[in-house]
Amino acid sequence: MNNKKKNEGQTDFSYYGLYLLDYLRTNKFEQATDTAFIRERADRAAETYEKARLEGYPADGAQEQAMDTLLRGLRYSRYAILREVVESEFFDEVPEEKQEAFILKLMPLVGNVFSVYDLSDDNFALSSDYDLLYTELTGAVVLYIGEYGV
Questions:
Q1: What are phi and psi of 131, to 5 degrees?
Q2: Contact 43/57 with Cβ under 8 angstroms?
Q3: If the chain, 150 residues long, is cut into consecutive pieces of 10 residues, what is the mean pLDDT of each piece?
Q4: Nearest CA-CA partner of 133 in 77, 68, 95
Q5: Rounded CA gap, 101 and 142, in Å?
Q6: Nearest to 69 by CA among 16, 127, 11
Q7: Structural contact between residues 85 and 79, judged by C-beta atoms closer than 8 angstroms
Q8: What domain of life does the native source organism fall in (predicted)?
Q9: Residues 99-135, buried b or exposed e (16+ Cβ, 10 A)?
C-alpha cells in the first residue's frame, strides 16, 4: 500500500489527531480506523491544552494534560502486551525477525485470555491483574510453541 493511499483523508487531522492515529496503528488498537473517535479525542485534547494554558499552566504542563486526555483508557493494547511477553519471555525461541508475524498469528488465539481483564484502566500495569494476564499469556505462548512451533 503506498503512503499516499494509506494517509488519504487523514491529512486534515490536527497534531493530536495525527499523534493518536500513529499511536493506535502502532499498537494495533481497533479504533485506528475510527476517524470520528480520533477527531473527538483530538478535539478534547486540544481543548484541554487551551484551558490549561488559560489557567496559567506552562506549555509543558498543558501538553502533559492534553496527552493524558488524548490517551486516557488507551494505555494498554492487547498487541503491545503480547509483544512484551514474546520479546521478554521468548527471545530465545522466537527470533526477532519472526516476532511480528508470530504475534499477529497469536492475537486471535489469545483473545479469550484478554477478555477477563480491563485494559482501559490507566493503572492496569500496576495491578495484580497485569501480573496474572502476563502469566496467562506466557502459558498460552508456551502451549502454542509446544504444539505448533514458531
A1: -60, -40
A2: no
A3: 47 87 92 94 96 96 96 89 93 90 92 88 88 94 89
A4: 77
A5: 17
A6: 16
A7: no
A8: Bacteria
A9: beebbeebeeebeebbeebebeeeebbeeeebeebbe
